[in-house]
Amino acid sequence: MAGAVSLDIHSARAARPYSRREYVGRALWALMTPLYRGSPRILFGWRRFLLRCFGARVGRDVHIDSSARIEIPWNIDIGDGAAIGAHAWIYSLGPVRIGPRATISHRAHLCAGTHDYTDPALPLQRTGLTIGADAWVCSDAFIGPGVTVGEGAVVGAAAVAMRDVPAWSVVAGNPAHFVKQRKLRVEGAASP
Predict the structure, then answer these.
(1) For the residues 155-166, what does the mean pLDDT come to?
(2) Mean pLDDT across the chain, nearest whole number?
(3) Given this model, what pLDDT does residue 190 score?
(4) CA neighbours within 13 Å on the CB side: how many for 46?
């Protein structure tokens, strides 16, 4: 064993990582959740409105499924035309930026915070994360704290991205590794 230091669980449990205003905001958002989650699937505009009421920056024509779990809306910035699928979890402890036309598929998990495991009190770190324009986070994928998924990149189904994903690349696996470059077909272009 590499040391005799133990965790300071009492300090970890006693820590108050949020301001009073943030605690109040989180409580109000929890009270509002039935209006969000209980809305019919097609009411994308209603969910955009509710998120904006809580400080989220949500672009035009954003589609967010009613079952998507959004933890702290005021830490979210979603670009025009983006989509968040069923049962996706946006754990926005820190700032989460989702670019225009990006897709977060069902059951994907974006985790924008962690704890400093080198400190016995395990203080919260709000690292944030970024999903680039035209990127696709596939079903059941996990994007870790501080990660940037580049423009047009694809994080494959059930992949675990704990490091940045280069633009226009396809990654898969746990841990996520490079598979190939993403190339888009142009309508009307002849295939090679």
Answers:
(1) 98
(2) 93
(3) 58
(4) 14
Closest CA to 48 of 77, 26, 25, 24: 77
DSSP E strand stretches across 33-168: 57-58, 63-64, 69-70, 76-78, 83-84, 89-91, 96-98, 103-104, 109-111, 114-115, 124-125, 129-131, 136-137, 142-143, 148-149, 154-155, 160-161
The per-residue pLDDT for range 51-71, each reduced to its tens digit, is 999 999 999 999 999 999 999
Contact 145, 180 (CB under 8 A): no
Angle, CA 118 vertex, CA 113 and CA 121 arms, to 5°: 75
- Cα 191–83–64 angle (5° rounding)? 155
Cα three-residue angle 126-45-38, rounded to 5 degrees: 80
The answer to whether 65 and 84 are in contact (CB under 8 A) is yes
The pLDDT of residue 14 is 82
Q: For the beta carbon of residue 41, count every other beta carbon within 10 angstroms.
A: 11
* The model's pTM: 0.91
Alpha carbon distance 177, 165 (integer Å): 9
CATH T-level fold of 18-181: UDP N-Acetylglucosamine Acyltransferase; domain 1 (2.160.10)
**12 within 8 A of 121, measured Cβ to Cβ:** yes
Locate the domains of the chain by residue range: 18-181
Instruction: Tell me what the mean pLDDT of segment 163-179 comes to.
Output: 98
